[in-house]
Amino acid sequence: MFGLWRTFTSVVFYLTLAVSLVGLVGNGLVLWHLGFHIRKGPFSVYALHLAAADFLFLCCHAAFSIAQVALGSQNTVYFVVTFIGFATGLWLLAAFSLELCLSELFPACYQSCRPRHTSGVVCGLIWALSLPVVLLPAHACGQLWDGARLLACLRYHAACITWLLVLACVACVAGLVLFIWVACCSQRPRPKFYGAVLGSVLLLTVCGLPYVLYWSLRPLLNVLLPIFPPLATLLACVHTSFKPLIYFTAGRQPRKREPLRAVLQRALGDGVQLGPRGLSLPMSAI
Questions:
Q1: pLDDT tens digits, residue range 5-16?
Q2: Is the whole model's pTM more than 0.70, yes or no?
């Protein structure tokens, strides 16, 4: 049984590493094209930062995994550092799906009330707040170095878990409301980022939430259910690696071969002009 367990963990470990490397290539292509070759608008800014957060998570995971193979050991700092990228991506996906949902439900009001640089400001705040939200409970619980403080650990960790679950609920509820509204109520064409957001939210529900559970109950799961941590890590890598495939699927045209740049331009590009008071076209046309 011990040999079978070692074989299983090795297979999952190298499969996770392979998925991470593939995801690095996919998110790197999205970053390159969306950052330098595709015109960005309000929603494509979220897609750019989301690809950056996924790239950070996968890069950290791949680097620490390779270091583990080379050195044969790994400490808790690995998990904390990689989780920063994952938590940032969760924040960004929640903001992305919520803003797209609001823009579809209340297009006229949203167009007139939205400041011009909302997307950039929100993404900047998310990046700035992700570090203390993850590092404070990790420091209090002794995951960065020795010296855990039990009461502070419980308080910070409970606050972090609550916030992460709230973000996951916001993303899922916004995606569900957007799906119901577009499918049953709206007479307008589908918003441009509809497929990308719904696919990302579905990936979060199936593959991302187990990693949040792992962060929440890590010491307990390592002892009582040792099979869960490697599987949760594999699913988290699938969650962050498959978003470029969702963008490609949303942007490609059936039975037509096109360059990757053209496909991503159709899926993530935004030709909306920004005037001095905000958007000059209805948000539903984005």
A1: 788 889 999 999
A2: yes
